[in-house]
Description:
Blueprint: E1 2-5, E2 7-23, E3 26-29, E4 35-40, E5 47-48, E6 53-57, H1 60-95, H2 101-133, E7 136-138, E8 143-145, E9 155-156, E10 165-168, E11 173-180, H3 184-193, E12 197-201, E13 208-222, E14 227-234, E15 246-263, E16 268-270, E17 273-279, E18 285-289, E19 291-296, E20 299-304, E21 311-315
Antiparallel strand pairs: 1-21, 2-11, 2-15, 3-10, 4-6, 4-9, 5-8, 6-7, 8-10, 11-14, 12-13, 12-15, 13-14, 15-20, 16-17, 17-18, 17-21, 19-20
Amino acid sequence: MTIGTAEKKDVPLYLTGPGTVTPNASVRITSRVDGTIQQIAFTEGQDVRKGQLLALIDPRPYQAVLDAAKAKLQQDQAGLANAQLILTRYATLQKNGFSTEENLDTQKSLVAQYQAGITGDEAAISAAETNLSYTRIEAPIDGRTGLRLVDEGNVVRGADATAIVVLTQLKPITIIAPMPEASRPALTAALARGTVVADAVSKADGSVIAAGKLTVIDNAIDPASGTLKVRALFDNGDLALWPGQFLDLRVTLDVARGATTVPSSAIQRGEGGLFVYRVGSDNRVTAQSVTAGTIGGGVAVITSGLAPGDRVATSGQFRLAPGVSAVDSPAAAGSQQPAAPSGAGKTTGTGEG
């Protein structure tokens, strides 16, 4: 049998939910114009920076359209200059009575046509330049490329749904987890107080994989499951988290300051509620009713029934009974575990949150 001591310590109050690692941003890289892929400028699994070239589509057809639009602009600008010169002459002739009002109005209309044509030419040049820029497919975010889905030499179209590659941001990265709807007030209050620590916890061994912070609580409760989604952000500099990974998200809601605690293995459950085997100064045990707050992480918070310094049995309780010596308990005494004393308290929280 092992004996532990009730201690006074600060205990974090956790809320835990099953989480899924989700990219902070994920972009399907597709073409916005039709053409032949001349170059794939990335390798699969490569880290790329925003603005870095990923693929190049044959730009020659779009360059030709741009050159034609620029030539049309020059033509119309020359025509406008000539029309304005003639308009000036007509105005002088009409003032001196050597030209009709009709000729002057006709020339004004021609000048306006050239001006409108130049505006259209400038719009055509802008559209051609935009389409030409689309032949350079660049990374819209920092991230890591996935598998290449289209090879060089293939014809792609702006209307195609097929992506050339999927670009995923891994640093930073997020975890999304559902939490019970009853936890919404505590989550909201924690965020209102400031930074809320969130840990990514392995489902395999309970170890903390990464530390981050809670960033947002969803604005709606799922009526089908009665849960509320939360998102936590992680720097993920060591790439310990990977998109699609399934783990637990543990949120620290608050810290219970100066709480009386015992090892969670000391807590026993009987017909009357929770109790512990308290070890007296004479080393004899008594069944002591307790009220527990949170129980998790190997620690139980005791809200009533024990005081700091009290000794309790933390293992081998099956050998104990009230009045038995904790130092020299007979094996026969543990053939049956006695029920908890009448009126034993009930827990106020049986999990990590």
